Amino acid sequence: MNLKSSKPILALSAAAALIFSACGNQQNSEETEEVKIEETTQSKFLSEPLISHIYTADPSAHVFNGKIYIYPSHDVESVVEEDDSGAHFNMRDYHVFSMETIDSEPKDHGLALDVDDVPWAKRQMWAPDAAEKDGKFYLYFPAKDHDDIFRLGVAVSDKPEGPFEAQPEPMKGSFSIDPAVFQDGNEYYIYWGGIWGGQLQKWRTGEYLSTGDSPYDDEPADDEPAISPMIAKLSNDMLEFGEAPKEIKILDKDGSPILAGDHERRFFEAAWVHKYNDKYYFSYSTGDTHNIAYAIGDSPYGPFTYQGVILKPVQGWTNHHSIVEVDEKWYIFYHDTELSGETHLRNLKMTEMTHNADGTIEMIEPILK
Ligand code: FUB
């Protein structure tokens, strides 16, 4: 996650771009101004906010015990100044939500885990995910440790909604952000990583590179392969990596790696995996180009071949999603900033997602023009 952009924060949505250009064109004729204002008011979002009593983002949705459970980030106003590493995304706890059916209102189950109850964590409780095994529920989450290095933690509960009890230490050998757990039969795989503010680029050598404070240090050159998201099978007790982490390759259709300079297609953050017709779909945010893109492979480890975009940019800088099957239909959960207009105060949304007959996914425009 990051804010490296000279663009105004909201300039990525059609609605916000129109508002911005309307505000920035005061010398223009009255006629031009009127047209722009009219266009702005005609813009509509594809979906309504799902939750409005608190700010929520980065939704990981699952079906557990016949209900839909959502594990989001809990966005809050922050006294921490905005910076390029996303320090103002200064979340400190998690709430879990459940829905009886895909049309019902999400129920807030209250505080599920607070940073003060995680001995190793200092701040920035970012995008979490959850998994169920043998009647126990595991919450996976990133947070900065006391050295300001992102690590991944696990917390355990007997109930999908928590409250969760955190392990005293982060997962051994863990780093970066955005854990996502995918169950394939009896095996569980954890995917993770996020560049820039998510620090993945600082682990290129296997050690933390503290060459500078800038989140843009340590990136490969534009013509080198992009930084890879990570995968590891989970241990039987679900609390640690069960094998040495491996890099995931995202390839072009000609088999060559997607390059670091290819910001339209390279992995940035928000990994998610779902399985459809025996193929593995790896989806992710492209960060500064704001798409949710996807790639398809024959194994949970990849390699994955880039296919295209599932979800076009939402209002707000970040784009982060999950994909879940409910009653034989597929849904994408995501967020935008419709309620606040502030990039760090997001609200959840959801819409149906369609796999085409050839296995590709129909692209979704979250802002109606
Ligand atoms: O919510 C904080 C960060 O913003 C997440 O970890 C990223 O994926 C981005 O959505």
From TrEMBL:
InterPro entries registered for this protein in UniProt: Glyco_hydro_43 (IPR006710), Glyco_hydro_beta-prop_sf (IPR023296), Glycosyl_Hydrlase_43_Enz (IPR052176)
Top-level taxonomic group: Bacteria
Gene Ontology molecular function terms on file: hydrolase activity
CDD domains membership: GH43_CoXyl43_like
Signal peptide, first to last residue: 1-22
Keywords: Carbohydrate metabolism, Glycosidase, Hydrolase, Polysaccharide degradation, Signal, Xylan degradation
Record family assignment: Belongs to the glycosyl hydrolase 43 family.
Protein name: Glycoside hydrolase family 43 protein
Lineage: Bacteria, Pseudomonadati, Bacteroidota, Cytophagia, Cytophagales
